Amino acid sequence: MTPRVTFAVAARVLAQLRRDHRTVAMLIVLPALLVSLMWWMFHDSPGTFDRIGGPLLAVFPAIIMFVVTSVATLRERSSGTLSRLFTMPMAKLDFLLGYALAFALIAVVQALVVVSIALYLLDLNIQGDAWQLGVVAVLDGVLGAALGLFASAFAATEFQAVQMMPAVMIPQILLCGLLVPRDQLPTVLRAVSDVLPLSYAVDAVIGVANGNGLTTGTGSDALVVVAFVLAALGLGAATLKRRTA
Q1: Using only C-alpha atoms, what is the Rg of the chain?
Q2: I want to staple 150 with a disulfide (CB 3.0 to 4.6 A). Which of 16, 30, 62, 232 is the partner?
């Protein structure tokens, strides 16, 4: 891995995104719109949005980042761009880390927008610090990007990359604690949820929202999310194909 090459890949991805206004709007605006829609849905049910609003700050950014990164990486392969890039002195990990770094910067903006709207416009009630909630929201966005980069290795077309989303993300959404608290799940499903990355992303958000800082148990959940990000990037580098067959 070469830091100079990694940063060059990140700069290239950011330059592409700057010209793709629809994708930028999807990444930054769509999570806030979805959270706002959920607030509107439960406006007449006091306390409901306060209960699910925090987890939604983990779920929506992760889903959207997953879709965008998996399709973008597949496009690089199918167009032959990745093969041309690898004619230069660039490792697979440089490519994936560059992508992850670029989308991490997008995740910072994404988190600032969605957390600010949730707290100050939608009156999401939390007991913790807003900046810690933002940090966890950034981690959750990066998690979605890392999972998307890993999943793209198993798709041959952009349509297949999109199909990976329900296969990878929907089971996590169902078991992450958004719909039913994880400690109330059947034993087998609880065991499955314990090995899913989105479970820890939601736990970290809930912990911060309940006033548990990142120096307490919530910090452990955040570190698990970081571990999943690193593992996804490492496995992605091991399975990345230069060209779609």
Answers
A1: 18
A2: 232
Q: Give the position of tokens 């059947």.
A: 186
Q: Which two tokens stand for residue 163?
A: 């199909």
Task: List all residues 6 or more positions away from 180 whose beta carbon is below 8 Å from its beta carbon.
Answer: none
Q: Is residue 244 part of a domain?
A: no
Which strand (E) or helix (H) includes residue 161?
helix 158-175
Say what the pLDDT of residue 184 is.
92
**Structure confidence by residue, pLDDT tens digits, 42-92:** 988 888 898 899 899 999 999 999 999 888 888 877 777 667 766 777 777
CA 146 from chain centre, in angstroms, equals: 7
Model confidence at 36, pLDDT cuts 50, 70, 90, reads very high
58: which DSSP letter? H
In whole angstroms, give the CA distance from residue 9 to residue 96.
9
Residue 136 contacts residue 204 (beta carbons within 8 Å) = yes
Residue 245 inside a domain? The answer is no
pLDDT at 237: 79
Q: The tokens of 222 are what? A: 């955040």
Task: Name the pTM for this structure.
Answer: 0.90
Whether 190 maps to a domain, the answer reads: yes
- How many domains, the chain? 1
What lies within 8 Å, CB to CB, of 97 at 6+ separation is: 1, 6, 9, 233
CA 57 to chain CA mean position, Å:
10
Contact 211, 130 (CB under 8 A): no
Angle between helices 130-151 and 158-175 in degrees, nearest 10: 130
Which residue range forms the structural domain that includes residue 210?
Answer: 3-239
- Looking up tokens 């194909």, which residue turns up? 241
Amino acid at 52: I
